[in-house]
Design goal:
Oligomer: single chain
Helix content: 40-55%
Structural class: mainly alpha
Radius of gyration: 18 Å
Largest sheet: 3 strands, parallel
Shape: globular
CATH class of the largest domain: Alpha Beta
Number of domains: 2
CATH architecture of the largest domain: 3-Layer(aba) Sandwich
Strand content: 5-15%
Length: 196
């Protein structure tokens, strides 16, 4: 989104996959929707580790995997996660990720905590595909709204997917992604109505 807002002249189209345009809205969704749906005793234990800054504790990692990741990050049993996912997690650079995101996956607390581009989305004029998923860590209602906020947006909803819908709702995700790319390449997308 930042690149599109600064360098649209270099873009033919834009794909925004499984992310929101507002970190405060993301935190609100985590606080108001995701955390209340969790087992509250487990959430209290997770929050205890977070309050102590004990993010490296194996029990914290186990709880997050069992109570959050397999429901909202990748809805596949962790033992069956694809090799690219495991490699990706293994190679996350915490010296970059943590200062920006914060150490918790239950909300943002890093440098991006106040980042919000919702009021600027209308400046994005290139054809834009926003992909969201029903079980995502991100709010699917917000992501659908984003598709209507840009000038030529289309929303792709992955009903069985989570944050990694490219794996757990792969057919819907890939089919929609390919169709968007073909439409943009053929010049058909500009004829569609914003938000559709």
């Amino acid at each position: 989104m930042e690149y599109a807002l600064h360098y649209q002249q270099h873009l033919k189209g834009l794909i925004i996959s499984n992310t929101m345009a507002s970190c405060p809205a993301y935190n609100a969704y985590a606080n108001d929707e995701l955390m209340p749906a969790m087992d509250q005793a487990v959430l209290a234990e997770i929050k205890g580790y977070e309050a102590a800054g004990d993010f490296e504790n194996p029990r914290y990692t186990e709880l997050m995997l069992e109570q959050h990741y397999v429901y909202h990050v990748l809805r596949i049993p962790a033992a069956e996660w694809p090799n690219p996912v495991n490699r990706g997690f293994k190679h996350i650079n915490p010296s970059i990720y943590v200062p920006l995101q914060g150490p918790s996956e239950l909300g943002l607390s890093g440098k991006l905590v106040d980042w919000d581009r919702t009021s600027d989305l209308g400046q994005i004029a290139v054809p834009t595909l926003v992909i969201g998923a029903q079980h995502d860590t991100m709010d699917p209602v917000h992501m659908e709204w984003m598709a209507g906020a840009v000038q030529h947006g289309h929303y792709l909803h992955c009903p069985e997917g989570s944050h990694m819908a490219m794996y757990d709702d792969q057919q819907v995700y890939v089919r929609g992604l390919i169709a968007f790319i073909h439409d943009v390449d053929a010049g058909r997308f500009a004829e569609t109505r914003p938000g559709r």
